[in-house]
Amino acid sequence: MIHDLNPIARAIAAGAILSVFVFASPWQAAAQTPPVPSAPNPSVPVTQAAPAQAAPMHKASRSKMSPTDRVEARIKDLHAQLRITPAQETQWNAVAQAMRDNAKSMETVISERTQKISTMSAVDDLRSYENLAEAHADGMKKLVTAFAPLYDSLSDSQKKTADTLFRHHERRMSSTKKS
Is the pLDDT of residue 95 over 70? Predict the structure, then answer.
């Protein structure tokens, strides 16, 4: 159980919540998709883009990424995987901003917790987890609010991709909980 872990392990566990917060870990998505070009190729229609295939990202590469970089990588990966069209950019931008805001919020709460961990009483520790859970829940509400209009605007193919991405995340999370 989490209360059996030392303070450093608890801080690391709390940090893991940040990656959950943005659907799934960005390095996993990076291992599944190639880098997205900065400008779309006008000669390739969005609906005819090649399937995503790339070499896996090494642990050393992802460990060097800042939380901001991981979120930006996840945003870029989701944009590519969902094949967001120019007509969907407005809704997508709201989702991306919610992801950025949520990551920043979680990073702040985790940082505050990490700075105070050595002087926390048991009650302070529980309140810190409460703050972390509240930030996560508030962020999820904001993300769902932003994501729902985007999802409604997706084509059937895009919805199928989104559904698969989210189902994959659920399987990964439930297998993590069992171990």
Answer: yes
